[in-house]
Each structure stands twice: as C-alpha cells, then as structure tokens.
Amino acid sequence: MLEALWWLLQPSSVLVALLLLAFVSLRRRWLALARSLLGLVLLAVLALLLLPVGSWLAAPLEARVPAPTTLPDDVDGLLVLGGALDWRVASARDQLVANAAAERLMAAAGLARRYPEARLVFTGIFGDQVPHDFQADADAQSFFFGAAFASREIVFLGGARSTYEDALLALETLEPKAGERWLLITSALHMPRALAVFETLGWSLTPYPVDYRTAGGAALLRPRPDLAAALTEVDLAVREWGALLVYRLTGRIE
Fold first, then answer.
1. 145-151, Cβ contacts within 8 angstroms, sequence gap of 24 or more
2. Could you report the per-residue pLDDT of 172-196, keeping only the tens digit for each?
3. Distance in angstroms (rounded) separating the CA atoms of residues 178 and 37
4. pTM of the full predicted structure?
5. What is the pLDDT of residue 218?
6. Nearest-CA neighbor of 192 among 237, 222, 150?
7. Cα separation of 89 and 46, whole Å?
8. What is the spatial distance between Cα 65 and Cα 108, in angstroms, rounded to a whole number?
C-alpha cells in the first residue's frame, strides 16, 4: 500500500499525471487549464535540466551523518542494510547483480577483511540470493570470496520490508549485548533515518555511510542536463525526505 502511494506521489509520477490531465483538458477543450498544466510541466522540466535540484535535496541528508575519519581496532559485527542487490536479475542469471547502491556490498567485503572476527550480517537479502559470494572458495560466479569468509558467521535477514523492520528483525535475531561495537553500513542518503531508527529502538551503532550521490561544494551549483538522471535523483531524495517525515510522525524515530 505504501509503495503504491509513493509511486503516485513521486515527482516523476506527478509530472506524468499532469501531462495526462493536460491531454484530457485538451480533449474537453478546457484550453486555459491545459495551457496551465503544460506550462507547469515545462517549468519543472527546465528546472531539472538547468538546476541541480536532486543534489540540493540530497546534500543535507548526506551531510547529516559524517563518515568516520578513523575506525576502531576491533568491532563485534558489521550490519549491512539491504537495497544494493537486484535479486530478480541475480536469481535469473545465477550471479550477484548489484544496483546503484553497490558500494554497500563493496564496503561489506572490505570491512569483513579488515575485521576477520566480526559477525557479518546482511538485511534485505536471503542467503540463496548470493550463493556464490561471501564464501571461502571461489567458483566461476564469485565476486567476493577468500579466507576472510572461511569460518566467520554470516547472517542473512531477508524477511524485512522496510528500514524499521530491518532494525526489529536484527535486534530480535542478533540480540546484541551491552558494550558490543557494531558498524552500520548503508547509503549516506539513507543513513540519517536508518541510524535514528536503531537508536530509537535502543541500539547504538557506529555509522559507516557509503554510496554518496553528491560531491558537495561547488558541485552543488552545476546543472545536470540529463532529464532521466535528474528525475531519478529527485525521486530518490524526495522519497528519503518523505520517509523521514513519515517515520517521525509515526514514532519510529525520535
């Protein structure tokens, strides 16, 4: 239900809806309304092409939780939030297929080698979706493999459908003890909401944001003359701001 509502409210869908309304208005000869709707769509498209709207929306969220400048000598666990795997294509091709958030998987593999004793936990992924990866021995389809994964505990928590359910399932399954140090790995845009959810539920983790979408500084003044890419960036940022608002209103984060 929430996914369907978001699909209707995301900026790209709103633009399509406005175009459809303009078409209906022309058919019914409501010319003034049609001109207004088409003008609104044109202004929106020009704004997306001439201004880095997506970066303006994303940058404040990405800056809210900074990346660590130093890492602890030891950690008890690495918690990698889902969203980096295109599991439908991966299942069809029998090979790990990542999406634009692939840095989550890359960071997981790198940190796993850095901390060979840490528990490695993935949410949003079932173990049978990555059968060739995060294992000791490589096969023809393996991307992430090696001694770092030989004897460690790797947990896949694939049953959650949201960040809030990720946190609940992880707490229930892992039962972290007081004093344990865990790294939370997710996209920088998603980190403020994810970290706030875990902290609201009483679990304090060390954030390790990855998958930055903005460069900051002068880059925030450069336009993105690619309408499809600009719309994708705006949709993603608006979705995260909207989710943050919903989580606050529903008490999932303080």
1. 146/113, 147/116, 148/112, 148/113, 148/116, 149/112, 149/120
2. 999 999 899 999 999 999 999 999 9
3. 57
4. 0.90
5. 64
6. 237
7. 34
8. 19
